[in-house]
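User: Hello! I'm new to structural biology and keep hearing that structure can be predicted from sequence alone. Could you demonstrate with dTDP-4-amino-4,6-dideoxygalactose transaminase? Please show me the input and the output so I can see what each looks like.

Assistant: Of course. The first part below is the input, the amino acid sequence of dTDP-4-amino-4,6-dideoxygalactose transaminase. The second part is the output, the predicted structure written as tokens.
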Amino acid sequence: MLPYGRQNVTDADVEAVTSALRSDWLTTGPRVVSFEDDLARVAGAPCVAVINGTAALHTAYAAAGVGPGDEVVTTPMTFYATAGTASMLGATVVFADVEEDTANLDPYAAEAAVTGRTRAIAAVDYAGHPAEYDALRKVADSADAVLIADAAHAIGSAYRGRPVGTLADLTTFSFFPTKNLTTGEGGAVATADPELLRRARVFRTVGLVRDRDRMRHPDEGGWHQEVHEFGLNYRLPDVLCAMGSSQLVRLPAFKARRQELCARYDELLAGVPGLRLPVTRGHVDPMRHLYPVRVLDGRRREVFDRMRAAGIGVQVNYVPAYWHPVYKDLGYRRGMCPNAEAFYAEELSLPLFYDLTDADQDRVVEALRTILES
């Protein structure tokens, strides 16, 4: 089965991990700091490494002070965790519809969803295409809300010449194996705000305060540490950070190949009947995690099944978040976001990863053409 996504691991990555295993530090050591510094150079802002992308979202919301009584405006066209981690902190999630072409959070819909209780607005860079952050910034500022970017798909992307990581108050990344780079499991939070950065670091380290200037009982002894607010152990170990730093060296090559593959898909699939290709706005330089086509005329399920039967691992990204039973049980109903639901009904992610060969891609295109033209 040709997968829709797959990691690229080299001897250099293996050596980096082996070196970490042979060192004095397996976790909370120097490679964590090195990886965070390496990541900051790409993101454009200081970073806090965490154990996965879901933990990054949880940490970002906690750093922003999201809690009971607050509302978080976000998109339904995302993996459930973008909403779920806000719900776990006691906030009410308000789903706003997406733009018809990019499937990103629509700034006008977000503005209409804002109330006096809005604490945060969380956009998702769907498939690696950054959301419209200039417009979303105006909405967030007018609501006195924190702007959060779920950039799980988008490390390496840029918006109006600015790197993802600098576009929101807090940005989260995921380093799952199918993403643009991997640490096995892993994630990070980026922010240029020193206080948000401090809160994120404390939250991911079980809430422990070790800074004597912040302690309530600083004279207890050299061993002393305090917990002022609840946190969780979301620390990314040195072993995985070593792999991350090694992967970051190849990020430009990863981006170049993904862009080349997307351009080939655009060319090879142009004019195929019953198919709509993804858009790229002129002010965006995306590093695509997904190549999401739209299968028209109600044929998405048929095409999905036939492609899988042909050994091609297409995927659907995603079921609208409020369709999940956990949100249905809270009273959310289908029909809330018609653009998102229409997009979901047609979306199909084609294989896209660094090691995908031209021959593999030709096979995907031929199979898809054959199905749609039959």
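User: So the tokens describe the shape?

Assistant: Right, they're a compact way of writing down the 3D structure. Reading them back into a model, for example: The longest helix spans residues 251-269.
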